[in-house]
What we know:
Shape: globular
Strand content: under 5%
Largest sheet: none
Distance between the termini: 13 Å
Structural class: mainly alpha
Number of helices: 10
Oligomer: single chain
Radius of gyration: 20 Å
Order of helices and strands: HHHHHHHHHH
Amino acid sequence: xxxxxxxxxxxxxxxxxxxxxxxxxxxxxxxxxxxxxxxxxxxxxxxxxxxxxxxxxxxxxxxxxxxxxxxxxxxxxxxxxxxxxxxxxxxxxxxxxxxxxxxxxxxxxxxxxxxxxxxxxxxxxxxxxxxxxxxxxxxxxxxxxxxxxxxxxxxxxxxxxxxxxxxxxxxxxxxxxxxxxxxxxxxxxxxxxxxxxxxxxxxxxxxxxxxxxxxxxxxxxxxxxxxxxxxxxxxxxxxxxxxxxxxxxxxxxxxxxxxxxxxxxxxxxxxxxxx
Length: 275
């Protein structure tokens, strides 16, 4: 009998469908409220800075809640719950440089993706316009990217998808890679796809080894904070541009950082707080 306080649910295509439906329901409710507001007050909330932030929050919350009530509770007789316990300090010392190294590597690979041409040019222009809208209000950008996104996205992609696949019997490395690929695809553009997959693998590895969702949340917030600072102060989400060095230098630093701290992390004894 399972004695853990954390439900041992599995993730299947049905669970994926439930998450999609939950997200759709949440965003639809926000859209209907906007329509009602337009009808009564003659104001389109969609143009407000907080609209996208609230819409994302409601969408994620409804997806998580629906997965809890339709998948987790009926199959495990427990409510959806995660381990957010901290671990030994030395682990934190190792995971942040490891994450930074992968961020450098991801930037180099992303820099190889074209931003001009008949397809990529128009797509990149649209992507830039969307990012400008998202980063227009710096306070909303920080709340959305540095606080909300790490919490909601780590719960869904690592806490639900990755853990659910491992509980199903999928090999950990396959579960980590699968969750990371899905994480990359939902970003919806090639310039964030590669980085999201690579960084997702680091987040997944950290979650698998520490058993705590708190650490990948911190790492995710760290990545998004760096991106927000780069966008704010350099107008370009690039360490290369910020430090005025070649992307090859960024790649070399990334390989050294990631390789060294990955080795130390994998050989580090972690104090688990979960049975």
